[in-house]
Every structure is written in C-alpha cells, then in structure tokens.
Amino acid sequence: MGKIINNLFQKMGKDGIELFEAIDFWRAMGISETITARRFGELLGGKECKYRDINKAMGYLSSVVDTIQEKMVADIEIQGSKIFAGEVYQILDKCYNYYIREKKTREKLVNKNVLCNEILEKYGHNRNIAMSIIAACNIWIENSILFQSKIDREIEEKLQDIDPVLMVDLYVYGAASTALSTLSLSKNIPGYALYYGVDINLKLSEPISLCRDHPIIYYNPLLAGNQHAFSIKGDDYKNANMSAFGKGFIEEYKIPFVESLRVLSSLQEYELNKGRFSCIQMSKEEFEKSIDYYKQDVIDCRDFWNTFVLTKEKIEKNRQNDEQIIWKMSVNKERHELRPIICFDDNTVFVSYPAFPRYITMLLQEAV
Prior knowledge:
Radius of gyration: 22 Å
Helix content: 40-55%
Distance between the termini: 36 Å
C-alpha cells in the first residue's frame, strides 16, 4: 500500500523504499494560499455555496465566466496582445511541464499497482487544475490573436516569473467554463441528467466541483489522461503516411504527415533548444526561412503555414453571432491545440515549446 509522509508517498518495493512526491498544485507553482484564497473569494462570490438546481448552477457559473472574461479582455486591451500572450505562454509552459512530470509519476504508480486513496486524490486534483489552466491558456491565446490590441507594443525584455493572479484566474475560468459546458450538455440529455449541480468550497485547492449521479462508475484518476501508458515507438509511425489517418491528412492539408512532424520536431529541437526556450518570437520571413531549411524540399512552405499557423483570419471563423470573444474550449477546428504556432497581423510569429508535444502526441495516436 504505502503512506504519505511530509508530501512524499512512501512505498516498499522489491528494491527497498520508493518515494513519490505528492505536493499541492498551487504550492508546486509557488503560489501562496493567501493569493489563491483571495482570488477564489473574489471570483466565486466570497462564500461557500451549493446549487442543486441545474438552471441555477448554470446561471451562477455563467456569471463567474462573464466576470473573468471582462477582466481578461481589459488586460489584453491595456497590455497589448503580444505581451498578454507572452504572459499566458509562460503560464502554459510552467503548468504543462509540471503536468507532464506528474503524469509520468502516475504511470509509474499504475505500473506498481499502487492503491492509496490519499495519493489518488492528490494527483487527481493536481491533474484537474492543470488541465483547466491549459485549456484556458489556449482559449486566451486565441483571443489575444483575435483582438490584435496594441500589436506595435513589443515584448522588450525577457518576462520574469509567472503572474500568480493571472494563473489563478485562468484556472477558475477553465474550471467554471468546463463545468458550465458539462451541465449544459447534461441538461440536454432527455430524461436523465448525469450532472445536476455545483458545489463551491473556497477552502479547497480545487474549489469548483460538479454534482453527478453515477453510482456504478469506478474512476481511477491515476489512469485518466495517461495516453502515454501505451507508448508510441519510433517504428510505429514510419508507415503512418500510408495509414487511413495519414492519407486523410495529406488530402486535407496537402502535405505529408510524417514529414510535417519532422519539421515540428526540428523547430522544437533547434529553434526552441529542446525546451530551454519556452517561447520565441520571430518575423514571418525568419519563420519561413527556418521552415525552408527543415522541410528538405518535401513540403510546400505555404501549405505548412496554412496547416500549423493560427491567424486572426482563421480565429474569426469561431465567433458566433458577433460575439466579442471566443469562449468555446477545445471544440473548434481553428484552435491553438490544432494550430500550435500563432501569427499577429504585423507578421510577428510566436513559436511555443509546450504547444507542440500534446499536438504531436494527439496526431500520432490517430495515425498509428
């Protein structure tokens, strides 16, 4: 079984005692309880509450989302889109790297058949918080492209440490938006609402929790999100161009699948120095020269641009009924998860390391 001592999970293995870190997400990010408690209170109404009526729960969550949207839009307009996007990319990098480290630990615990409720709960909360932040980062990177605010204002120096308030705000936005979408979907299931309400507990590191009715479902958070549990080897994608997905990719985007991944991997390894640079900006001309160098005459640079670069023109397709912002997360075809490179109207290109691995892994899982 094992036990947790001072945030370390201790398990006796055949080779002796093994230790696994089990630390609260916000503490791992270097964000104090004072900041999280204050922002949770300000954004979530200042008191604990329970909504058991699905319409009232949706109304409450909608007001939370609207409040944060107004604040984010104001931040973009005041700071400028590039500076705001740079700050969000910083948070995405730190959060994604921590998520991946914990994900690898979860895989080890699964392989060792660890069953400890305390560590299951700890890793489950951390995963949920990280995924909410990552989803919110993607949508607000998209909105920074959409607004194109003060794009003449450049990032003049290396950004310092992450903005802790912005990170907490992104979490609450991601969690509340996801909960709202889930309740809306559940409400539309005729005759049965799997999710029916929401609880707000400001004392928890994950203060928003949905009320759900699933008495016979067993859920193991160590397994959730572990796509790498079934590892993809180098040989698995040698013939990926000939798979149904690979053929469909070529038909849709006019470029070969495997060779495209090689170009993305080259950008990761050389331009981003294997992750030592979390995000770089360059001119469109510089970017195209890099692609020309890495593509080895196999890929047309314009087709690569159209496939992987997200622009305002593409983003605007996601707005509905003249809405000011994009608010639907992880559902639009033209979104940051599927087009991991962004470009502003002045032809400034942002290339971010954490935007690539999840996208590449997602494609490989479809192709092999």
